[in-house]
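Service request form, structural biology core

Requester: graduate student, group of Dr. S.
Request type: structure prediction, single chain
Budget code: on file
Notes: please return the result as structure tokens.

Sequence provided:
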Amino acid sequence: MFDWMKSCSYDEAQKRRFHATARSRLKQLAAELRLPHGSFEIRSNKGGVAVSGEVTLHHDRAYIQVGQFGLSSGHGILIRTCKGRRDYTGGANHFVALGMLDDIPALAAAVRAITGVGRDASLSADRRAA
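Core staff response, request fulfilled:
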């Protein structure tokens, strides 16, 4: 498992691993939420040497950003609603633990609860097909 709490400050190799792993997990999240291709983008901003930077999944109605901005609290995933991919301020901020990137179904459930985005994986195959 990736050590999300290991600081990226002044550690280029850790920052590179952090961004690569976060991008991979956000791609898994998009698949878990069954987001249609073209309805979202994943982008990375490495920031300066003293910070982790951010990795963002920006959907047409949800904005999910991963960073080490809440290390002291253990939080590092920002989830909020938005109105399109040009909306960078969106709805109210909600934060969950960075460690949720190791449990994509739980993270997807949090995203659905906060934003209403994504199909509920608990629906039966029959109901999804309808």
